[in-house]
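Action item from last week, closing it out:
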Amino acid sequence: MEAHIAIIKLLKYLSTKYLKGFTLDDEGNYWETGDEKILSEQFDRYHAAMDIFCGMIKDVPAVPGETAASLAERLERLLRKRP
């Protein structure tokens, strides 16, 4: 979260000094609000989603010779089956 804040602050500075009309879509909403609590809540949501995802795929067996594309397809099928 600290890195996110530092990058946003740097981009805000650069945008006011050198990048007129620059806009940014910040999913953490820190660019728009400057509110660390809102950013923290968004980070918490992403961490929870990643924990759920990791829990769902941790026991997926490796398939020898499988390509990245076929692994992605297999994981997508698995995730679509789960609520």
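Closing note: The chain has a mean pLDDT of 93.
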